[in-house]
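User: Please fill in residues for this 49-position structure.
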């Protein structure tokens, strides 16, 4: 499923090339932007999605 999400939001070009591990912070930010989720303000050290 993570591979398909990475392809759907443009982080990877193909499912066969996508990583299977946990999402990085950058990937989470890209996914959030793609689905229109705004980070919760004031979360430290990083915003939660």
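Assistant: Residues filled in for all 49 positions:
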């Amino acid at each position: 499923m993570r591979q398909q999400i990475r392809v759907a939001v443009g982080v990877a070009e193909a499912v066969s090339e996508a990583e299977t591990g946990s999402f990085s912070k950058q990937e989470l930010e890209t996914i959030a932007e793609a689905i229109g989720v705004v980070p919760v303000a004031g979360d430290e050290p990083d915003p939660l999605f």
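For context: Residues 2-29 form one domain.
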